[in-house]
Amino acid sequence: MGTRDGLDRQRVQALMAAERADYIARHPASARLAATAAQHLLFGVPMHWMNDWSTPFPLTVREASGARFRDADGHEYIDFCFGDTGAMFGHAPAPVAQAISRQATRGYTAMLPSEDAGPVAAELSRRFALPYWQFALSASDANRFVLRWLRAATGRDKVLVFNGCYHGTVDDVFVDLRGGLPTQRDSLLGQVHRLTDHTVVVEFNHLPALEAALAQGDIACVLAEPVMTNIGMIPPQPGYWVAAQELIRRHGALLVIDETHTISSGPGGYARAHGMRPDALVIGKPVAGGIPCAAYGFTEDLARRVERAKRSAPPGHSGIGTTLSANMFAMAAMRANLEHVMTDAAYRHMFALAKQLAEGLRAAIARRRLPWCVTQVGARTEFQFAASAPCNGSEAHAIMDSELEQVIHLYLLNRGLLITPFHNMLLVCPDTTPGDINRLLSVFDACLHELRL
Length: 453
Ligand code: PMP
Hints:
Elements: H1 9-26, H2 28-37, E1 61-65, E2 68-71, E3 76-79, H3 94-104, H4 117-128, E4 132-136, H5 139-154, E5 158-162, E6 175-178, E7 181-184, E8 199-202, H6 207-214, E9 219-224, H7 240-250, E10 254-258, H8 269-273, E11 280-283, E12 294-298, H9 300-312, H10 328-341, H11 344-367, E13 373-377, E14 380-384, H12 393-398, H13 402-413, E15 417-418, E16 425-427, H14 434-452
């Protein structure tokens, strides 16, 4: 077998077989529950992609609190995945639990604004320096709605995204560069529209490609994560965003920053922390402490353009908004989360622990002389199978190694540590302790030892 990274692939596969056997032996209750559930759940799971974890069958969760959760077999885990960011401020944070308990007897949804709506929008404005807000139930929805508003406001029909991006189940973004050509992702199911007609894709960190695309004059907006986090982690090169924002503005396009993951950078997200000036911003997943909710904000100027677009359209369906969006329950949760959980103090704690984690991972990788790197974006840390972080989506795709990834994930899981599937991302939350980090580091080190020798 090949020895990419100097790792013996037969050794990787033998370790995987041992870890799978161990998982099966340790999880009889999860196995039983999975078998029973499969009688009525399509694919055996409530969401088909839950089968794509490294485990032989899904791990069933019984309860979660703070930085920990327990499975149906009674094993306790330290969580570094936090529902891929949905629970990044800890599971069931007390202020959110209290707010939703209070709301539990006061109604959930009425298709009318609740008393929390105004204060929530005011707090979002303060944090993100954008004055006007709307809500959705998921970041996917929020991104979809923003694209609709911005196409309507600009009268331009194209959006520009970066190769390898992910912004949720937003059809427009599933266009990749393959051999330098925009190509619709072939894994999409049931997609009948030609996405390449209205989506332009360029590599991240490549200013000439961005400029050439914008110069066509038909791009309504650029939709981007400020650091790409969904194909491993791709940081912007120094000066990239300053120049990119200037180009976007010069060519009359708008910038939408999706902070759903990069909210790990600070209470106002990456854009605020790094002096970016987006026209619109999307935030989802953890904004209401894990209760389904998302929000998007506009500058004053964009808000006026969006209002004009709405006023000049005939009455009827806009294609924007869903019945339960901005419901009373989500608003109560979001208010409590913003006021009492996503605090400056919580971020200070998370940054210190993420630094401990990133430095510890780097040290373990260096000890084993592996050509891997570690990238930290606030409370979010990723290890990647290359000596330095990738510069764009093509590079990031090339270094992915799902066999290696899966064995590391399963090894950690069997020892009570959960990290984010489908890449190598670890989050810390306000309840994570230095001892939790030490435990992760020592098991990670043991895993590398097994793989390397
Ligand atoms: N934006 C980004 C940057 C994301 O990473 C994701 C999901 N991973 C989404 C949007 C979509 O979030 P959701 O699945 O909650 O709609």
